[in-house]
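Methods — Computational structure assignment.
A single polypeptide chain was analysed. Its primary sequence is given first, followed by the predicted tertiary structure written as structure tokens.
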Amino acid sequence: CFNDEKPAHRVTLRDFYIGRYEVTNAEYCRFLNEKGNQSEGGADWINLEGSFNDEKCRISKNGNLFTVETGYENHPVIYVSWFGAAAYCAWLSQQTGRNYRLPTEAEWEFAARGGNGTRQHLYAGSDTIDVVAWHHGNSEGQTHAVGTQKANELDLFDLSGNVWEWCADDWHNEYKGAPTNENAWIEHPDRGANRVIRGGGWNFEPKRCRAAVRYYARPQSRSSDVGFRIARQD
């Protein structure tokens, strides 16, 4: 493991719900058509002009309407900032009357490892990465539709590979001092601190797609390999 995955520590979580899939282009497009592509943290929620190699943003704006490129409706949304992911959660909460949010890092890892029924796989659901993840070796240079690889023990998909996923927490270089419960580890909510991303992506090597791997990005950054999934606690 990498140093930022240490020290191993015990965490006790309350029950929570987490998205079975990463949020898709079609789902995020519905949000954009109601809220628009607003600016937060110095950048628009989603970079519609984003393009890296062959993987570009598959959402475009025609007049006042946001649409998804045909065939990419069920691919995970990309080029979305942490602010854009959090704004989607707030909008969905208003639509449903439930408290949706980004998962905390502890919740995310518990889900990726397979919960209480974990088999302690290296990746989320298997020790063989090609079974559960789209990564540098098999993605052919782009994201893939969610749920097209094998699920893990909790019937959750793409927690390894496809896209990195935003979490609620600030980034810390190690786990020393981390919460021992499900709470997000946030110390600088108003300072633009780097935020945690988890899971690896379509253009990363297998060792970066392990269930334990952690990484970070600026909250206003928007990348071809970063998306998100939602969580809630009733």
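Note: The chain has a mean pLDDT of 95.
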